[in-house]
Amino acid sequence: MIQVDIEEERKEILKRYRRLLRQAKPILKPGDAKIIKKAFNVSLEAHKDMRRKSGEPYIYHPLEVALVCVEEIGLGTTSIVAALLHDVVEDTYWELEDIEREFGHKVMTIIDGLTKIAGVFEYGSSQQAENFRKMLLTLSDDVRVILIKIADRLNNMRTLGSMPRHKQLKIASETMYLYAPLAHRLGLYAIKSELEDLYLKFTDTTTYKAIVHKINESKSYRNKFIRQFIQPIEEELNRQGFKFSIKGRPKSVYSIYNKMKKQNIPFEEVYDLFAVRIILESELENEKADCWQVYSIVTDFYRPNPDRLRDWISTPRSNGYESLHTTVMSNLGQWVEVQIRTKRMDEIAERGYAAHWKYKEKDAPGKTTSGLDEWITQVRSMLESNEGNAIEFMDDFRGNLFQEEVFVFTPKGDLKVLAFGSTALDFAFEIHTEVGARCIGAKVNQKLVPITHKLKNGDQVEILTSNKQKPSEDWLNHVVTSRAKAKIKDALREEKKSAIVDGREIVQRKLKQMKMEFSSETVEKLRAYFELKTANDFYYKVGKGIIDPTTIKSFKDFRENQKLKHKAIQEKVRDESTFTKEIKSLKGPDHDQLLIGEDMDVVDYILAKCCNPIPGDDVFGFVTVNEGIKIHRTSCPNALELLSNHGNRVIKARWTSQKEIAFLAGLHIVGTDRVGLINDVTKVISSELKVNMRSITVDSDAGIFEGTIKLYVHSTEHLETLVKNLKEVEGIIKVTRFD
Q: How far is CA 55 from the centre of its chain?
């Protein structure tokens, strides 16, 4: 039992509370400090007997969340009060009515948005997705709900070390799935980068540590390099009378990792590891001219890469981000990204939404709405029209968070900002729902194009319509904006309802003919057999004739076969001792085992085909509906979605000793071709390490050799030794594992 010094803790709590007040001081109006104190006392009292997993008093958490709201997001008193009280309703005897009575309607609404829903949800949804949806529904009323939630999540991620492993995976994946993209969309770049880095730290610790080590290793070289790089620019800026500051920093760990993964390159080959930021003090009306003048100074000294110029000053991103980015070649032959912006732009980039509002009020109260306001209006309409299940909703919403943009014009010259990859059909729905629903084609720059035509920056678009046209299912494949998707789904939903009713009747009749019971259990098994997400999807496909009712007969035959197989297995398992002996003789005495669940038992499982885990890999178990427990690698391409939306079906899993059992793994090899290379490679694999190969495919083009090898190994350690030995073969440049 850890001894707790109550007096020390009390001092620490007061110290943190005073720090919060100090940070908030510049924004407090008369009477605000009193309200904050009241909220702090309520929270302190409500959580007095609670501790966090780390053993610290629970009150540290609401205090830290409130501090993030002030210090890193720039929010005001209402948000501080809501942050201090955000867990009170969920964890204690306080009700929402009490909050409203003591702190007013606004604070109550925000806390309601932050309080999780309890209960059971329809199949195909999940508690997590429903809670995401509830929280996002309040986004349209009050953006502060999301901002406080992001602050809450940031503190949870910073203290994730004290959580058990499976909880770390679930929370980190949710963060990457929803909160990091949300922070990006609301312009909170510093928080977004920290959330991504923390995600990597807890899901792929080895890679994270390796990148951090390499960044630290090159720190003194990097500082010297940046000093030399900015010296001539600084001198020229001073000569021309600019007031400015320059920051040099490496890219975030996650963005480096992402580049390594996307381009399949080692750390050393990531070409723009550093970014240099020039921040100007500039009057609002001169901002644009000043930034371009600085750009011209930078490019006088260093040659820019013309493909890497990003001008978000003339047309800011829809989350309010303004900056001028260029990548230039330094004198030492290294690419450096240079970001040029003013102090105002920098604050908006760092603090996003809150700063954007602050400047909007200060500069011009009557100023036209920004892209960020438009985005929130779009989200609002998407939320209002959403009737599908929560997971489908989450997928649509996430799609809306990531997109880059394309700028196009109406025939009258009005600018429309759409998601990158938008088609003429997206544009039609952007104009009006009716125009979208009747769209048959478009004229882009006076040329006739189909509705599927992808738009490019600067296109001028005119939509052609017909009263006979109506939306169809395949339209969903030709749009990317959530507005268009929502409107098409609305139209299809009406049509779908009647098809579902028809399908249900057909299934009922068919099962009756086959003397099978029409029950939710049977329908659930039919859904799984036809590999569909929900029972309604199954009814719909039957109703539309996509699934022929006669094929339901094949399901009955399949069930009977399964029963026979199951019976045979049961009989085999019955004789426990012979079964155990058989397993031992097959696997050798000290075979590898996977321990699963809270009690770390040996349970039946299947290895997921999407990522082929092998002993030594970091893994988790996932309880599927029809196939028992599946084991996935934590770095599996599907892990993010599974952990975020179905965290309740995730269970702990880890390997024990691994000896004489082989698992399939894949290696990708690149090198310079020479006579005898293949022979040397296969020699390393089969003779040196006694590994069995399943297949090898090799391609050689203009002296470059590329091959993939599938082989059986015992563990990640075994695989790493093999990779190391292969890299030593003359002519081999790169060896990487693939799923």
A: 30
> Are 532 and 547 a contacting pair, CB within 8 Å?
no
Task: Give Cα separations from 50 to 47, 91, 393 (angstroms).
Answer: 5, 9, 35
d(CA 410, CA 428): 10
What is the bridge-based pairing of β-strands 405-409 and 335-342? unpaired
For residue range 180-196, list pLDDT tens digits in order: 888 887 778 889 999 99
Residue type, 109: T
- Give all strands (DSSP E) within 500-548, no chain letters: none
pLDDT tens figures, 239-269: 999 999 998 877 889 989 988 888 888 887 7
pTM beyond 0.90: the answer is: no
| Beta bridge pairs of residue 737 | 667
User: CB-hemisphere CA count at 13 Å for 194?
Assistant: 17
* Three-state DSSP string of 309-354: CEECCCCCCCCCCCCEEEEEECCCCCEEEEEEEEHHHHHHHHHCHH
Active site residue 90: yes
Q: Which of 5, 7, 91, 102 is catalytic?
A: 91
Half-sphere exposure of 405 (CA within 13 A, CB side): 22
Query: In angstroms, rounded to a whole number, what is the distance separating the alpha carbons of residues 575 and 510?
Result: 41
91 is catalytic: yes
- Radius of gyration from C-alpha coordinates of the chain: 30
Dist CA 316 CA 368 (whole Å): 14
- Tell me the one-letter amino acid at 588: G
Catalytic residue among 12, 49, 90, 575: 90
Q: How confident is the model at residue 126 (pLDDT cuts 50, 70, 90)?
A: low
